[in-house]
Design brief:
Aminopeptidase; alpha+beta; 309 residues
Length: 309
């Protein structure tokens, strides 16, 4: 099927889509680099994660003294997954204005949720879920038929990686806890899960806002893509093709913008951009395919998250 559009059409729908690796973590990632430096010799050690994520008991992760203690655990029951879905709805729909199609009012629910493991960070005092990721493992991706990213990109060139590849998505942090501790705790738990289960590769879609100086357009995404293509593009054998590409050739890619903070956080951890962004015409966002591999983590991040060099 051939899809046609022009650059002007990108500006018609001023709505946001928040799927894949979400831009909802931007504020949390703003202090990532500072937190990493300050906590190089500090106590942010996480207990080992069970090979079976649903068997992981809650455990406390240390935070700065001025902040409440938090715990991290994999969801083991349906009501825990619902708590994550409520937080996602609060962030994506209510805070960011995404128009979510959901069968459960007040919850962000989609086809892939039932096949994913859900990582939860809670406030240890209130027990409220304040941060979450969902993880789709290779085995579960086979059961559901694909990764979510397969719906936006042709991942054929990643076929040899699939047996050790997980997909991260639907990540978000409650606005009251975006000081860096929650995202570091999530990333540390994810890193331990990957190594304990002998998984090496993480993929996901990073959403880029389509607004610049109050104007909705694809120029921001085109400009971010131009910058990252020159500095962080994956080798050809790992590059993927968007099923509905953003028409970057028809857009102004010279804007003096930076990549969203979450994307910059992944890049500091050695992530690569797998190709040009996909365009979702219904929600008018650009989704950038990204991949991060455990063995490519810089030494200080390996030590921080995995305890190894």
């Amino acid at each position: 099927m051939t899809l046609s559009y022009d650059a002007a059409a990108v500006m018609q729908l001023p709505r946001k889509r928040h799927t894949g690796v979400m831009v909802g973590l931007e504020h949390a990632c703003m202090s990532l680099e500072t937190s990493m430096i300050e906590r190089t010799n500090a106590a942010q050690t996480l207990a080992s994660i069970s090979v079976a994520p649903q068997a992981l008991p809650p455990r406390e992760a240390k935070r700065p003294a001025a902040e409440a203690p938090i715990t991290v655990a994999w969801a083991r029951h349906h009501d825990e997954v619902r708590a994550a879905q409520r937080l996602r709805y609060q962030i994506f729909a209510e805070e960011m204005g995404a128009r979510l199609e959901t069968r459960v009012p007040g919850h962000d629910v989609d086809l892939f949720d039932d096949y994913c493991e859900h990582l939860l960070v809670r406030d240890a005092v209130t027990s409220d879920v304040i941060g979450t990721y969902r993880v789709l493992t290779p085995a579960q991706a086979r059961r559901v038929g694909s990764f979510y990213s397969d719906t936006e990109f042709d991942l054929w060139r990643l076929r040899r990686l699939r047996e050790q590849m997980v997909e991260l998505g639907r990540s978000c942090v409650h606005p009251d806890y975006r000081q860096g501790g929650v995202i570091l705790t999530l990333w540390g738990a994810l890193g331990e899960f990957m190594t304990r289960n002998k998984l090496d590769t993480m993929i996901g879609c990073a959403s880029i806002p389509m607004q610049y100086n109050g104007v909705v357009s694809g120029d921001v995404a085109a400009s971010v893509w131009r910058q990252l293509k020159a500095t962080h593009l994956a080798p050809i054998e790992h590059q993927v093709v968007p099923r509905l590409p953003l028409p970057v050739e028809q857009l102004d890619d010279s804007l003096p913008v930076e990549a969203p903070a979450l994307i910059k956080g992944y890049l500091r951890c050695g992530a690569k951009v797998l190709g040009p962004p996909a365009w979702d015409p219904d929600f008018n966002t650009a989704d950038l395919p990204m991949m991060m591999r455990i063995h490519e983590l810089p030494a200080r991040y390996r030590k921080h998250f995995l305890g190894t060099l």
